[in-house]
Amino acid sequence: MRPDTPAENVANAETADTVDHPAEAARLERTAGLYPEDAEALLLRAAAHLEVSGDRPAATALYDRLLSSSGTLETPSLVRALKAANLWEYGHEAEARAIIDGVRLAAPRDAAPWVIVAEALEAHDELEAAHDTFTEGAQRLLADVADPPYATHPLLIGRHRVRRMLGLPHDDWDARADTLHSMPVSLDELHDPGRVWSLGSDDPADLQAEIARLRAELGAYREALSRPFPVALLHWPADELTELVEAYPPLAEEYPSYETHLTAVETALRELAASGTLNLGVVPGTVPSYEAFAASEGTSPSDPSLLPQYATVLAARGRAAAWPPERGAGCWCGSGRAYGECHGDLPRS
Predict the structure, then answer these.
(1) Domain span including residue 293
(2) Interatomic CA distance for residues 286 and 239, integer angstroms
(3) C-alpha distances in angstroms, 308 versus 150, 160, 236, 324, 326?
(4) Residue 136 lies in a domain
(5) Same domain, 158 and 240
(6) 208, 225, 242: which is the final residue of a domain?
(7) Where is the domain boundary, 225, 258, 290?
(8) Does a structural domain hold residue 195?
(9) Does one domain contain both 204 and 256?
(10) Residues 176 and 309 placed together within one structural domain of the fold
(11) Residue 233, SS3 per DSSP
(12) Are 309 and 299 in contact (CB under 8 A)?
């Protein structure tokens, strides 16, 4: 972990009521300047702090900075969705709507942009449009998926909530959302439109019931936030591995060849899975970010013991892809072939 972003400070900055949000945003901006490979994630966090502080124009400026940058964004639709939601909150409805239309037209392949623009519509009482957006996202991402990935759960649960508010009957996706919800209070009760009336009730029983519902919701959020980071193994793409070994020859013992490296990663993941380890992932490394991490740790990049630490930090930043890949998805190695036809087809030991 970098010296200027210790884990305990990050946790406190995200959860404490007394955090100085403008100062934290400024710190994250400075850090983004020092580590450009992480600028996108850091500036998004900075924008979130600015939104919480009430400085929405400054948050918009950060979103614009990302969208106008010369580099390629990892999640351009996410940045646009966040910008639209933020704009609408301080009176720029027309621009927000135009951006939302653009996000939907782009049809992103991850759930977060769909959820953000749908919830922005829902927050401004555009329930039919929110329902259509949640549904479109589900159709594009989950039409042929038997087991919805964790990241798509808010898409189905948000859709369930809006349909409940519209008084629409349950459909197959609502039933699937019910199966994803593990709290004692059912989704139907949590999403009951009549709950809002209980908040103005003088009846202690009504208020006690609402407190129980809110506790259940808080428990769901805590469960989501406390999900462990993946146990991630480091994967070096071929060109990065070549550059790494040429720059730091002592690491050649760790990586005698690219093919050996790929086989070792797959074998280790299978062994971990067989031992009962859950939430496995693969995280790609790059030489520049590895060198920056080594510098932040005050250690030489030639030190092999630094490699698992580097993988852990990358996973903590959300860089890991779940292993094994979903049915029909591409192999984690980047070959372009389906996992089942690539490393998933390796002989079992």
Answers:
(1) 231-345
(2) 9
(3) 25, 41, 13, 19, 25
(4) yes
(5) no
(6) 225
(7) 225
(8) yes
(9) no
(10) no
(11) strand
(12) no
Decide if 121 contacts 97 (C-beta within 8 A). no
What is the full per-residue pLDDT of the chain (349 aa) written as tens digits? 223 333 333 344 444 457 789 999 999 999 888 888 888 989 999 999 999 999 999 999 999 999 998 888 989 999 999 999 999 999 999 999 999 999 999 999 999 999 999 999 999 989 999 999 999 999 999 988 888 888 899 999 999 999 988 889 999 999 999 988 877 778 887 787 776 556 566 778 777 777 777 777 666 655 555 555 568 899 999 999 999 999 999 999 999 999 999 999 999 999 998 888 878 999 999 998 898 888 878 889 999 999 998 998 888 777 888 899 888 889 999 999 999 899 988 776 5
Q: Do the domain assignments include residue 125?
A: yes
168 and 305 housed in the same domain: no
Residue 104 sits in the same domain as residue 118: yes
Q: In what order do the strands lie in the sheet with 280-284?
A: 231-235, 280-284, 321-322
Whether 119 and 37 share a structural domain: yes
Q: Is the peptide bond before 324 cis (omega within 30 degrees of 0)?
A: yes
Residues 6+ apart with CB under 8 A from 206: 198
Q: 191 with 239, same domain?
A: no
Give me the half-sphere count of Cα atoms (radius 13 Å) on the Cβ side of residue 264: 13
Look at residues 27, 16, 81 and name the one whose alpha carbon lies nearest to residue 52. Answer: 16
Domains of the chain: total: 2
Residue spans of alpha helices (H) in the chain = 7-15, 21-34, 39-53, 56-67, 76-89, 93-106, 111-123, 127-142, 153-166, 172-180, 187-190, 195-198, 204-225, 238-247, 258-274, 287-297, 306-316
- The pair phi, psi for residue 147, each rounded to 5°, is -120, 100
Say if strands 231-235 and 280-284 run parallel, antiparallel, or are unpaired. parallel
Query: Could you tell me if residue 2 is inside a domain?
Result: no
Same-domain check for residues 63 and 160: yes
Record the tokens describing residue 2, joined without a space: 């970098």
Q: How far is CA 179 from CA 30, 158, 172, 188, 189, in A?
A: 43, 14, 11, 12, 14
